[in-house]
Design goal:
The chain is of the alpha+beta class. Helix content is 22%, strand content 18%. A 3-stranded antiparallel β-sheet has the order 1-2-3. The two termini are 20 Å apart. The relative contact order is 0.17.
Length: 73
């Protein structure tokens, strides 16, 4: 899984939007992460992709059947 980070050139005083992270195969509308540093933006991206059932990050693999049905990991 390749993650790309880039500066956003955020003009506001809110430093939490200075960096953006997305997966290499990003298409408009996909989840993005934001943070004050590249590391925080990457962490935000990964947390948004964490499975609510098992706690793993399945991206870029499809979510396993057990997680889709709620039967555990």
């Amino acid at each position: 899984m390749t993650i790309i980070t880039s500066e956003t050139r955020n003009p506001t005083p809110n430093r939490n939007l200075d960096w953006r992270a997305h997966f290499k195969d990003y298409e408009g509308g996909d989840v993005q992460g934001f943070g004050a540093t590249p590391e925080l933006a990457t962490e935000d991206l990964l947390e948004q992709n964490r499975c609510n059932t098992c706690g793993d990050i399945h991206y870029p693999e499809p979510v396993p059947y057990s997680c889709r049905t709620g039967d555990g990991a």
